[in-house]
Amino acid sequence: MAEELSLAAYARHRGCSRQAVYVALRAGRIRRTESGKIDANEADRMWAENTGARPSDGVADAAAQDGGDELAALPWGEARALKETYLARLRRLEYRIKSGEFVSATETAKTWGELARRTREGCLALADRLADQLAAEDDPFEIHQLLSRELRQALEALADEAVAGGGAS
């Protein structure tokens, strides 16, 4: 025979408030028997089928995604200490960023991209600048000297510009 419980007894059975049981009854998620009681087995089955997941505040979800299931079981004092540790680390990181100890990855990539572009343009310009001189030269040693001198000057100019802070404009 099915176990029929009063509304209050069913709430205790479910581990919820009587108000939650009232809400489930009004919403039609569970129903009373003809005697006015609640069939615990039938109501449990209906509750599971008709009650969706509750929206969370995001804290438990974030802990679970962070692999922090163990965080949910921490005593309040330990959780508070852990929170303060993370906040201190975050503040230290923010300080280091603001003090210039760390630089933005985006800005660094932009600067290096600009420097690479200028290097490429400088190297490609060598052909236009030296084509006539190299065509007129017969001596391989002189060609080597001319190319070496021009490459060194172009690369030193780029390095000087980068050191002076002109890597990205």
Structure overview:
The protein is an all-alpha fold and 169 residues long. It has 3 domains: 4-50, no CATH class; 59-98, no CATH class; 105-163. 70% of the residues lie in helices and 2% in strands. It is built from 8 helices and 2 strands. It has helices at residues 7-14, 18-27, 40-50, 59-65, 69-72, 76-98, 105-136, 140-163; strands at 4-5, 38-39. A two-stranded antiparallel sheet has the order 1-2. The longest helix is centred in the last third of the chain and has 32 residues, at 105-136. The chain is rod-shaped, with a radius of gyration of 37 Å. The model has no long low-confidence stretch (mean pLDDT 83).
How far apart lie the N and C ends? 83 Å
Count of helical regions: 8
Shape estimate: rod-shaped
Poorly predicted regions: none
Cα-atom radius of gyration: 37 Å
Q: Portion of residues in helices?
A: over 70%
What is the assembly state of the chains in this entry? single chain
Strand count, sense and closure of the main sheet? 2 strands, antiparallel
Structural class: mainly alpha
The structural domain count equals: 3
| Cross-sheet strand order for the largest sheet | 1-2
